[in-house]
Amino acid sequence: MICEVNGIPVYYETAGEGRPFLMLHGGFIDHRHIQHDLEPIFAGHPGWQRIYPDLPGHGRTPAPEWLVRQDKVLEIVLGFIDQVIAGPAIPARA
Description:
alpha+beta
């Protein structure tokens, strides 16, 4: 799936249904690495929708030349959250 944020087509995949759980990969890899490692853990734990985006410059999400600082990457992640994880805020557990 693709979600456009600030002109960047952010590629992502989802798995499962329920409460959204954003899965962010580290540097030099893409969503496939953590998806491969984490999906077996969730097999016995229903109720979570896992969202695996490729961060800019990784996997299928390009990084434009203007994206040179981490605060700009954070803006993309926050815009992605605003668009993909819709609905009212989820209250914190006590």
